[in-house]
Design a protein that fits this description.
By secondary structure, this protein is an all-alpha fold. The protein has one domain. About 75% of the residues lie in helices and about 0% in strands. The N and C termini lie far apart (about 35 Å).
Length: about 100
């Protein structure tokens, strides 16, 4: 394995560990930011720059900060349900798993 792959894997583990420790509102912001990045990439547009990502995340965090814990959790569940349904539709997941 080359050094770049090892560094990428190390960074990925670090990111996953940090994200896993976030409170639900912040976790939802991360999730939605990643979804926005994927949509923009699929549309053939250049990726967001760091300032855009930070600005969008701050805006989204302030919007979500007004939600109760239960509302944030429900929004996260709804978002994951939409992703699962899309994956099932594309044949990337099996219904019920």
């Amino acid at each position: 394995m080359n050094n770049q792959i090892l560094e990428t894997e190390k960074l990925l583990r670090e990111v996953i560990a940090r994200v896993a420790q976030l409170p639900p509102n912040d976790l939802l912001v991360v999730y939605e930011t990643i979804s926005d990045l994927k949509r923009k990439d699929k549309a053939g547009k250049p990726s967001f720059n760091a300032n855009e990502v930070l600005s969008r995340a701050k805006t989204r965090a302030s919007e979500l900060n007004r939600l109760s814990h239960a509302e944030a959790i429900q929004r996260f569940i709804d978002a994951t349900d939409r992703i699962r349904a899309e994956a099932v539709e594309k044949g990337l997941a099996i219904e019920g798993e």
